[in-house]
Design a protein that fits this description.
Largest sheet: 6 strands, antiparallel, barrel
Radius of gyration: 29 Å
Distance between the termini: 67 Å
Helix content: 25-40%
Shape: flat
Number of strands: 6
Structural class: alpha+beta
Strand content: 25-35%
Strand order of the largest sheet: 1-2-5-4-3-6
Length: 151
């Protein structure tokens, strides 16, 4: 047998050993998935509104001077008597000058006027973010300083 044949044979044996060892056969089983789904947390900066009226599938609330509340935003109904337990999820479908109407998309319990509505603000576009402009100014200053130092 030639040396090249033996080298190929040894390489094939090494690949087979690595495949068997790395296949996960020797690993322990993964723990079972939790029974309860993990719910996303409501952001801390969500605005809190009082619910004025509740119909069969909608809730109406005053938006006051919150101009950023608009149709399409998600909202959450919480129960303040039970440490802000989640009661329902809503989607805002209409906004007037002083009031907004939200449609109940899923609920754990019946929505009442004793509950509060939490509406997270919409995300800020990247060009309006303060840290974008701070980084732009600092980067520009460092670049100008490095250019002057090289000359």
């Amino acid at each position: 047998m030639s040396a090249a044949f033996l080298v190929r044979r040894a390489a094939l044996v090494c690949v087979a050993v690595v495949t068997v060892v790395g296949s996960g056969c020797h690993r322990r089983e993964r723990p079972a998935a939790p029974l309860m789904p993990v719910l996303p947390r409501i952001p801390r900066d969500a605005a809190r509104f009082e619910i004025d009226a509740v119909d069969d599938s909608t809730a109406t609330f005053h938006v006051f001077e919150s101009r950023w509340v608009r149709a399409g935003l998600s909202a959450y109904v919480v129960d303040p008597a039970h440490r802000d337990a989640l009661v329902a999820r809503l989607t805002i479908i209409r906004r007037d000058s002083m009031t907004a109407t939200a449609l109940v998309t899923s609920q754990v319990a019946r929505v009442t006027t004793d509950h509060f509505l939490l509406v997270p603000p919409p995300p800020t576009p990247w060009w309006r973010a303060k840290w974008f402009w701070v980084g732009t100014m600092v980067g520009g200053a460092l670049g100008a300083g490095a250019t002057n130092a090289i000359r």
